[in-house]
Amino acid sequence: SQQGEEDPQALSIQEGENATMNCSYKTSINNLQWYRQNSGRGLVHLILIRSNEREKHSGRLRVTLDTSKKSSSLLITASRAADTASYFCAAASGGSYIPTFGRGTSLIVHP
Amino acid sequence: DVKVTQSSRYLVKRTGEKVFLECVQDMDHENMFWYRQDPGLGLRLIYFSYDVKMKEKGDIPEGYSVSREKKERFSLILESASTNQTSMYLCASSERRGGNEQFFGPGTRLTVL
């Protein structure tokens, strides 16, 4: 079963708008990671947030983690057409060091 | 620049053929992984390895085997390819244990006819 589940499955916005994607997970985690995948390519790591952190920033990306709700969100501010991609969360939990990936959110940013 | 390379971007094979997918990383990472990615199913872990000659089953190992004779190279083997193994195959590596960042290769899109 999937440890991380992204919501929504698909998101379509205009350039300049903010995009928010959510991830829910089932069991306690050591950390949670977000990855981006451009069409037909491998995944690229965006950001890692540890279980004792609540918020992390990287450029236009902001990730939050709420361990009480077992959820995380990825916010992309001032989106660009180049942000069009699929975004995955991956949670590494308990005794496992292997992150489990969700099914992803497909983001389309219209120019 | 860190790099994970995969032997082919696209591969077409016939049912029953033995298929080798090769992955090489140049980061001296201990951990290496093979995933398959299918629409609507996300990434599913096939096998992983945390050291040379070590391998462990992931979530969907049936129909696959792996080989890790050198630290930098992790091979995925389809002993007798079937049409339901048509998929995108992604290799990744990471350092040590601890849920660290994974570095992915560009993927191999395998079609089994």
Account of the 3D structure:
The complex is a heterodimer of chains A (111) and B (113). Chain A has 111 residues and is mostly beta strands. Helices cover 0% and strands 59% of the residues of chain A. Chain A has no helices and 11 strands. In chain A, the strands form 2 sheets. In chain A, strands 2, 4, 5, 9, 10 and 11 form a 6-stranded mixed sheet that branches. In chain A, strands 1-3-8-7-6 form a 5-stranded antiparallel sheet, with no helix packed on it. In chain A, a hairpin with a 6-residue loop joins strand 9 (85-93) and strand 10 (100-101). The model of chain A has no long low-confidence stretch (mean pLDDT 91). Chain B is mainly beta. In chain B, 0% of the residues lie in helices and 53% in strands. Chain B contains no helices and 11 strands. Chain B has strands spanning 4-6, 10-13, 19-25, 31-38, 42-49, 56-57, 64-70, 73-78, 87-94, 103-104, 108-112. In chain B, the strands form 2 sheets. In chain B, strands 2, 4, 5, 6, 9, 10 and 11 form a 7-stranded mixed sheet that branches. In chain B, strands 1-3-8-7 form a 4-stranded antiparallel sheet, with no helix packed on it. Chain B is globular, with a radius of gyration of 13 Å. The termini of chain B are far apart. The mean pLDDT of chain B is 93. The A-B interface holds A 2, 30-31, 33, 35, 40-45, 48, 88, 90, 92, 96-104 and B 4, 31, 33, 35, 40-43, 45, 48, 58, 88, 90, 92, 97-107, 109.
Question: Topology, please?
Answer:
The complex is a heterodimer of chains A (111) and B (113).
Chain A: E1 4-7, E2 10-14, E3 19-25, E4 29-37, E5 43-50, E6 55-58, E7 61-66, E8 71-76, E9 85-93, E10 100-101, E11 105-110
Parallel strand pairs in A: 2-11
Antiparallel strand pairs in A: 1-3, 3-8, 4-5, 4-9, 6-7, 7-8, 9-10, 9-11
Chain B: E1 4-6, E2 10-13, E3 19-25, E4 31-38, E5 42-49, E6 56-57, E7 64-70, E8 73-78, E9 87-94, E10 103-104, E11 108-112
Parallel strand pairs in B: 2-11
Antiparallel strand pairs in B: 1-3, 3-8, 4-5, 4-9, 5-6, 7-8, 9-10, 9-11
